[in-house]
Each structure stands twice: as structure tokens, then as C-alpha cells.
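Researcher: I'm preparing a figure for a lab meeting and need a structural model of a single chain. I don't have an experimental structure, so a prediction will have to do for now. The sequence is pasted below. Please return the structure as C-alpha cells so I can convert it later.
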Amino acid sequence: MKLVFASNNANKIKEIQQLVPDYIQIVSLQDIGCTEDIPETAETIEGNAILKANYITTNYGLNCFADDSGLEVDALNGAPGVYSARYAGEPKDDSKNIDKLLLNLEKQSNRKANFKTVICLNYNGKQTLFTGIINGKIIDERIGTNGFGYDPIFVADGMTQTFAELSMEEKSGISHRGIAVKQLVEFLRNGN
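Model: Understood. Here is the structure written out cell by cell.
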């Protein structure tokens, strides 16, 4: 089974490939010759996942899935949320995003946060959404060099290490994206 993953993020593609069984072949946007920047103009994480999947289905006629993820921080009313990748402005810069987030949380005692991923699957003419959420907290300083995005400052509930201290395998086993991908795989395995 071939499925297009509507992403150009090499880290995400690697992470997803590790999470799906061998019989599902993940095809990247590059593999199908899609070089356009797919618009991410929705006001929600769900909306962006749907926009990206629909773009591939409409323009390429292929079965595909797309994800959108965000960090939602309680003390910031769910920000950065849908704007997580560009929190500090254009161009995307993980380090500047972390700096801005830590600055905005300086005087906050509530450090609760969650990572949320929504996957939109367009498969055989039907659309299905899968959601993965992992709760945790934001720490005061970067720790670890693995991962990407906000991983160096996020510690999941029940863990002592940041996502950036975990191997890709360890992170994938518990992450928001891992949870959503497991739901996707189960859905496909059941012949939907």
C-alpha cells in the first residue's frame, strides 16, 4: 500500500516511516513531484491538516495523509497552537520560537502544556481524522539535542527527560504524532 505523506519535513517523514508497518510505503511530496508550498492558512490544527490532505487529493488524485501539530500552553490560552512553527515570525526558526515561548512564560507558575497532532487521511474517497495528544510541562531551559521544534523544553507527564533527550524510537513510542499514527495504522489494518 502506497500513501503520500503531505510533508516536506524530513524529520517528520523519518518519524512516520518508523511508526508504520512495512506493508505501508510512505511516499513524500518530493517523490510525487510536488514542490509547491501547500498553504497552511486555517485557524486550527485540524483545519491545516485537512487543507494539506485536500491539496494533494485535488491536485494529484492520490490517497494521502497530512498532519499538523502544535504546542498548546495552558498559561498562554493554548498558544502558540496552530502558529507553533512560526511563533517568532518568518522564516521558521525553532530556536527563536523557544526563546519567545520561554520569555512569555517567565512570570508564569503554570507550566502545563500539551503537544497535539491531527492527521487527516484522504483514502478511497473518504476523509478521516485522527488526533494524538500528550500532556506535559515546559521547563526553563533547553536540554537535549535530539528531536526538533519545542522538544528541548517539553517534558511529558510521567517522564524526567525532555523529548530532545529521547531517541527517535523512544519519542515515537509516546509522542502525540505516535499516538495519531497508531490510530491511522489501526484504521487501515481494519480495511477501512
